[in-house]
Design a protein that fits this description.
Helices cover 28% and strands 21% of the residues. The protein is built from 17 helices and 18 strands. The strands form 4 sheets. The protein has a 7-stranded antiparallel beta sheet with strand order 15-12-14-13-17-18-16. The protein has a 5-stranded antiparallel beta sheet with strand order 5-6-10-8-9. A 4-stranded mixed beta sheet has the order 1-2-4-3. By secondary structure, it is α+β, with helices and mostly antiparallel strands. It comes from Gossypium harknessii.
C-alpha cells in the first residue's frame, strides 16, 4: 500500500475496535493488509511465540533490570525496513488500541523504549535497528543519519570521509542517535559547539496520522520540540540532518587518577570553580568511585579519574593547565596526541575504526542491573560536603557505584535556554550522574541498591540546583514522577512535576506543541509530554 493511502486510513478514528476476537490476531491481520509486501511480515514482525522473540527483545537492552521474567513484554516487535512499515504499524496500533514504544539503541535508563513500568497494557515495540544509514556530504559539512544508527556508526561514517569533521554527540558508541538527539545529547565537543540537538538542521518524522514530515512541512514548533523534548511524545523521527563541525587534525587526551591520599578532595573542590571557565576547546571530567587503598590493605579510599579531551596539541594544553590549574600538576608525559576519532575509540577500549560499528559492546555507563540519577550544580560543593559523601561509597551496596562529573560552560553558556527544549545552559557549572550497579545474583535484593542511590541523592539536595531540582530527560528517572497511563485525566498536573525538572519553563511550550500535533495522546509513555486535553 502506498504511503499516501496510510494518511487517509489514519484519518479514521483510531478508537474503533477489531472485528477479530483478539487484538493480537487483529493487529497481524491489519499488518498483512497494509504492508507493501505482506510476505515480509514473517521476517520483520516477531510475536511472543517466535523462537527469536526474547533474543531480539534483549538484543539492545542495556539495563538488565528490564529483562527479567517479571518485566512486561510487547505483543509484537516490528523491525521495519522502510517508512511504510512504520506507517502500517502506527495505523494498526491505533485501530487496535495498542501502545507503541520506539527503540533506537536501547539505552533508556528506565527501559521505556521497549517495556512499560508498573502497569499492564498491550503494546508493540518498533525497533529501528534496520534503519541506520549514514550519508556524509564533506563539501557541505552535513550528514543525514537514520534514527536506528548508533553514535559509533555515525562517527565511523564521518571518519571514513574526513578526519577533521566531527559531530558533537555523545561519547559512547553503542547509544542510538534517535534517543540521544531527541533529548539533547552532550559529549566531548559540547563546550565548543553545544549539544547534538543544537546542530540538527532538518529531520524526517512520521506523525500520529502517518504523515512523513520534514522541517518545512512539520513547522518550526514541532521541529523545535523534537530537538531536546524527549523521545516518544511527538512521533517517530526517521532521520536527522546534521551540521558537522570542524576539529583539528590532532587532539590531546589524558586520564590522571588521584586518591584521597593524593589530595583528591582538594583537587575535585578546585576543579568545580575552574573547569567551566576553561577555553571551549577543553573538556575536563571526573569519574569517582571507591577502591582499596592497596592490594594488601582492606582499607577503602576514593579514587578520582580526571579525564580530558583538548582540541589542540600537548604543547598548547600543558601551559594552559599550568596557568589555570597548577595544583593538578599535569605534565607532558600524562598526555597523548591523536585524531579526534582515535580519541573516541580510546574511550571504548578499541584501536580499529571498525570498533565503532559494534552495537552491543559494553558502554562506559553500565550494561548490568543498574539505577541512575542525575543533578546539575550551580555552586561549588564545599570540601565538607564532599567529605560527607565519600563514606557512602564504602558501604556494601556501593561496591560497583560511581559518580561522573562533567564540566559545563563554554558554548553552553551562550545558547538561550529557550533555543530548544533543553534548558540547562548559563549558570550550570557541571552535571553529576550517579550510578549503582549490581549483579544478577543480587537482583533479588535490588531494593538495597535503590535505597542506597536514593540516600545519596537525598544527601546531595543542599548542594545542587533547586526550584526546580533540574534533571536531564535522556537520563530518565521515574522516581521524580510519572504520568497516569490508565487515564489521560490529570496527566498534565502530574507531568508538571517531572516536566519542569527536565524542561523548566519550556515544558508549557512542549505541551502546546503536543496538543497541536497529537491531541489524542497516541504517542505516550510514563514520562511523555501530555496534551492539554489531559488536564
Amino acid at each position: 500500500m502506498f504511503p499516501s493511502l496510510f494518511v487517509i486510513l489514519l484519518s479514521v478514528s483510531w478508537k474503533s475496535s477489531s472485528t477479530l476476537a483478539y487484538p493480537s490476531e487483529g493487529f497481524l491481520h491489519c499488518l498483512s493488509l497494509h504492508f507493501a509486501n505482506s510476505t515480509s511480515i514473517s521476517k520483520l514482525v516477531y510475536t511472543q511465540r517466535n523462537s527469536s522473540f526474547s533474543s531480539v527483545l534483549k538484543s539492545s537492552a542495556q539495563n538488565f533490570r528490564f529483562t527479567t521474567p517479571s518485566t512486561p513484554t510487547p505483543l509484537f516487535i516490528i523491525t521495519p525496513l522502510q517508512p511504510s512499515h512504520i506507517q502500517a504499524a502506527i495505523y494498526c496500533s491505533r485501530i487496535h488500541g495498542l501502545h507503541v514504544r520506539t527503540r533506537s539503541g536501547g539505552h533508556d535508563f528506565e527501559g521505556l523504549s521497549y517495556t512499560t513500568a508498573n502497569y499492564i497494557v498491550p503494546f508493540v515495540v518498533i525497533d529501528l535497528v534496520n534503519l541506520r544509514s549514514v550519508q556524509v556530504d564533506v563539501e557541505k559539512a552535513t550528514a543525514w543519519v537514520e534514527s536506528g544508527a548508533t553514535i559509533g556508526e555515525l562517527y565511523y561514517g564521518i571518519a571514513q570521509k574526513s578526519r577533521t569533521l566531527a559531530f558533537p554527540a555523545g561519547l559512547f558508541s553503542t547509544v542510538g542517535v534517535g534517543g540521544q538527539f531527541s533529548g539533547g545529547g552532550y559529549g566531548p565537543l559540547f563546550r565548543k559547539y553545544g549539544l547534538a540537538a543544537d546542530n540538527v538542521i532538518d529531520a524526517r518524522l512520521i506523525d500520529a496520522k502517518g504523515r512523513i514530515l520534514d522541517r518545512k512541512s512539520m513547522g518550526e514548533d514541532l521541529f523545535w520540540a523534537i530537538r531536546g523534548g524527549g523521545g516518544g511524545s511527538f512521533g517517530i523521527v526517521l532521520a536527522w540532518k546534521l551540521k558537522l563541525v570542524a576539529v583539528p587534525a590532532i587532539v590531546t587526551v589524558f586520564t590522571v587518577s588521584k586518591t584521597l591520599e593524593q589530595n583528591a578532595t582538594k583537587l575535585v573542590h578546585r576543579w568545580q570553580s575552574i573547569a567551566h571557565k576553561f577555553p571551549k576547546e577543553l573538556l575536563m571530567s571526573i569519574f569517582i568511585s571507591s577502591v582499596k587503598s592497596s592490594e594488601a590493605d582492606k582499607k577503602m579510599t576514593i579514587k578520582a579519574n580526571f579525564s580530558s579531551m583538548f582540541l589542540g596539541s600537548i604543547d598548547e594544553l600543558v601551559p594552559l593547565m599550568e596557568e589555570r590549574f597548577p595544583e593538578f600538576g599535569l605534565v607532558s608525559d600524562d598526555c597523548l596526541e591523536m585524531s579526534w576519532v582515535e580519541a573516541i575509540l580510546s574511550t571504548q577500549g578499541g584501536v580499529q575504526l571498525e570498533t565503532l560499528l559494534e552495537r552491543h559492546q559494553k558502554t562506559g555507563v553500565s550494561q548490568t542491573f543498574f539505577k541512575a540519577k542525575f543533578d546539575y550544580v550551580k555552586q561549588p560543593i564545599p570540601e565538607m560536603g564532599l567529605e560527607g559523601l565519600w563514606p557512602m561509597f564504602y558501604e556494601e551496596e556501593a561496591k560497583m557505584a560511581n559518580i561522573f562529573l562533567v564540566a559545563y560552560g563554554g558554548k553552553m553558556d551562550e545558547i538561550p535556554e529557550t533555543e530548544i527544549p533543553f534548558p540547562h545552559r548559563a549558570g550550570i557549572i557541571y552535571s553529576i550522574i550517579y550510578v549503582v550497579d549490581w549483579d544478577e545474583n543480587e537482583n533479588k535484593n535490588s531494593k538495597r541498591f535503590l535505597n542506597w542511590i536514593r540516600r545519596v541523592y537525598d544527601y546531595m539536595t543542599p548542594y545542587v540546583s533547586n526550584s526546580p531540582r533540574e534533571a536531564y530527560v535522556n537520563y530518565k528517572d521515574l522516581q521524580i514522577g510519572s504520568n497516569n497511563m490508565f487515564s489521560c485525566k490529570g496527566s498534565y498536573v502530574q507531568a508538571k512535576i517531572w516536566g519542569h525538572k527536565y524542561f523548566k519553563n519550556n515544558f508549557d511550550r512542549l505541551v502546546y506543541v503536543k496538543t497541536k500535533v497529537d491531541p489524542e495522546n497516541f504517542f505516550r509513555h510514563e514520562q511523555s509530554i501530555p496534551p492539554l486535553s489531559c488536564f
